[in-house]
Amino acid sequence: MRIDLNADLGEGYGPWPMGDDEALLDVLSSANIACGFHAGDPLIMERTVRAALARGVDIGAHVGFPDRQGFGRRVMQVERDELAAMVVYQLGALAGIARAQGARVTHMSFHGALGNMAAADAELAAPLVAAVARFDPDLTILTSPSRAIEDAAAAHGLRIAKTFLADRACDRDGLLVPRRLPGAVIHDEALVLERVRRLLAEGVVVTHEGERLALSPDSILVHGDTPGAVALARAVRGAVAEAGGKVVPLSRRNAAPA
């Protein structure tokens, strides 16, 4: 079993940090870097790319609404054409910074409210995924289970990598439960690890409704902005090793083992 371990990084702004990115990058195999809209700025992006590159960690673009005050977790009413342009704008920003350091962006993911909306709405997912394909058809879209995003990616010939959010509850369709609901965000490390171990051993996750949902993820995500994220990421990596697996970056997951 070869599986990726990822987190959302670079989510500070100016002198205000968010999470311990340096320590997390010692544990992760892929990083989803904020592109300046919901969080991040050019210097933070550059530093995070450089740190990821030094560790052989895949570099991904994490795109969201232009909502720093709400950390991209508030719904915004924006026309689809404008949202598609915002996706390209953010992808271009990170790709330029990566290229200047001799690196490339390997994947992208949608953040927060934008991601939740696209995952549940095929009419919104279609233009956003089309924008990704126009920008770089070699990008992989990293997403929690979503028929809308998966179908849009297939229509444009884009690769999909499914990620399991270890510390977030999902519903019977695999969609994330809104953060306002009790139990939507799982803070208990023991419970998070129980979910990861069940996933690795049985290929299932217990949904917010208490049902068993079959899931075969390519990646596991730990939120880097939550307290204890570094210790949790290490514990999840340990659980993968205990299950006989190996943590590898998304771009090398399907490569033949050395």
Overview in brief:
The protein is of the alpha/beta class and 258 residues long. It is built from eight helices and ten strands.
Structure description:
- The chain is α/β, with parallel strands linked by helices.
- It has a single domain, classed as Alpha-Beta Barrel (TIM Barrel), CATH 3.20.20.370.
- It is 39% helix and 17% strand.
- It has eight helices and ten strands.
- It has helices at residues 21-25, 42-55, 80-100, 112-120, 122-135, 147-155, 189-202, 229-242, and strands at residues 2-9, 30-34, 58-63, 107-110, 140-143, 159-165, 204-206, 212-214, 219-221, 246-247.
- The chain has a seven-stranded parallel beta barrel with strand order 1-2-3-4-5-6-9, surrounded by five helices.
- Helix 6 (147-155) links the parallel strand 5 and strand 6.
- Helix 3 (80-100) runs parallel beside helix 5 (122-135) and helix 5 (122-135) packs across helix 6 (147-155).
- The longest helix has 21 residues, at 80-100.
- The radius of gyration is 17 Å and the shape is globular.
- The two termini are 14 Å apart.
